[in-house]
Automatic annotation (TrEMBL):
Annotated organism of origin: Telluria antibiotica
PANTHER family linked to this entry: CELL DIVISION ATP-BINDING PROTEIN FTSE (PTHR24220:SF470), IMPORT ATP-BINDING PROTEIN (PTHR24220)
Gene3D superfamilies the record matches: P-loop containing nucleotide triphosphate hydrolases
SUPFAM superfamilies: P-loop containing nucleoside triphosphate hydrolases (SSF52540)
Residue ranges constituting the ABC transporter domain according to the UniProt record: 2-221
Any Pfam family hit: ABC_tran
SMART domains noted in UniProt: AAA
This protein's name: ATP-binding cassette domain-containing protein
Length: 221
C-alpha cells in the first residue's frame, strides 16, 4: 500500500545533510506501523512524502499503486482524500466548537450539512468525545484535542492514517487513549503509520521502522 524505493531527500536550504538517505520500505494494506528514531531522524519527512507535502530528491514513493513522488498538483486533493493526516502543525480552529471542526473536511468536499454533522458525530463517538461536541477546543485537555484531531482526520473515511507524534506532550493516560483511538481504526482495516518517541508504546508494537540520520536502521521489510 505504501512503498518507498530508494528515496532520498535533501532540503534545499540544508547544504549537505540528507533528511532521508536511500530509504526503501514497504507497508502493507491494513498494517499498523510505528516510526521511531531521534529528533531530526526523518520521521516527519517520511510521512510528508506519503502525502506529497514534500517530494523526494531521488527515488519513488508509491501509495495505493500511484507514484506520488511525481504526482501533479491537480491529483493531490484526490490523494489526500484517502489520507487521514494528524500532523503537529494542524491546529483546531479555536473559535469553533469541536463538532464544527470535525465537520469541516466534509463541508469543504461538498457534503450537505446534515450528513456532515451525522458523520462528524459518529467520528467523535469513535474517539470517545461525543459528549463534548459543542465545547470549544480550549475547553479540552491536550489529549482530548488530539483525539478531536483524530476524529477530524478520519471523518472522510481514509484508507491510510498518518499520525506524526500524536502523543507528544501527553501524560500516560491521555497518550494511551490517543493510541487506543488509533488502534481502533487499525482494527477495522485502516493502514496506520504513527511516529513516536514513547518507549512504552514502541515496546508493545508489532512493527517499528527505526530511522537514524535519515537511514532506516530497522523494520523496513
Ligand atoms: N522544511 C525543512 N527545511 C529544511 N530542513 C528540514 C525541513 N524539515 C526538516 N528538515 C531537516 O530534515 C531532517 C529530518 O527532519 P524531520 O522533521 O523529518 O525529523 P523527525 O525525525 O520528524 O524529527 P522530530 O522527532 O524532531 O519531529 C532534520 O535535519 C531537519 O532539520
Amino acid at each position: 500500500m505504501i512503498e518507498f524505493q530508494s528515496v532520498s531527500k535533501k532540503y534545499s536550504d540544508s547544504a549537505s545533510t540528507l533528511a532521508l538517505a536511500d530509504v526503501s520500505l514497504n507497508i502493507a494494506k491494513g498494517e499498523l506501523v510505528y516510526l521511531a528514531g531521534p529528533s531530526g531522524a526523518g520521521k516527519s519527512t517520511l510521512m510528508k512524502m506519503v502525502a506529497a507535502i514534500e517530494r523526494p530528491t531521488s527515488g519513488r514513493v508509491i501509495v495505493n499503486g500511484q507514484d506520488v513522488s511525481r504526482i501533479r498538483k491537480a491529483g493531490i486533493p484526490f490523494l489526500r482524500r484517502n489520507l487521514g493526516l494528524i500532523f503537529q502543525n494542524q491546529r483546531l480552529l479555536n473559535d469553533r466548537h469541536i463538532l464544527a471542526n470535525v465537520m469541516l473536511p466534509l463541508l469543504v468536499t461538498g457534503a450537505h450539512a446534515a450528513q456532515a454533522e451525522q458523520r462528524a458525530r459518529a467520528a467523535l463517538d469513535k474517539v470517545g468525545l461525543l459528549d463534548r461536541a459543542l465545547a470549544l477546543p480550549m475547553a479540552l485537555s491536550g489529549g482530548e484535542q488530539q483525539r478531536v484531531a483524530i476524529a477530524r482526520a478520519i471523518v472522510n473515511r481514509p484508507q491510510i492514517i498518518l499520525a506524526d507524534e500524536p502523543t507528544a506532550n501527553l501524560d500516560r493516560a491521555a497518550a494511551d487513549k490517543v493510541i487506543d483511538a488509533l488502534h481502533a481504526f487499525h482494527s477495522v482495516g485502516v493502514t496506520c503509520v504513527i511516529s513516536s518517541h514513547d518507549d512504552e508504546i514502541l515496546d508493545k508494537a508489532a512493527r517499528v521502522i527505526r530511522l537514524e540520520h535519515g537511514h532506516v536502521v530497522g523494520g523496513a521489510a
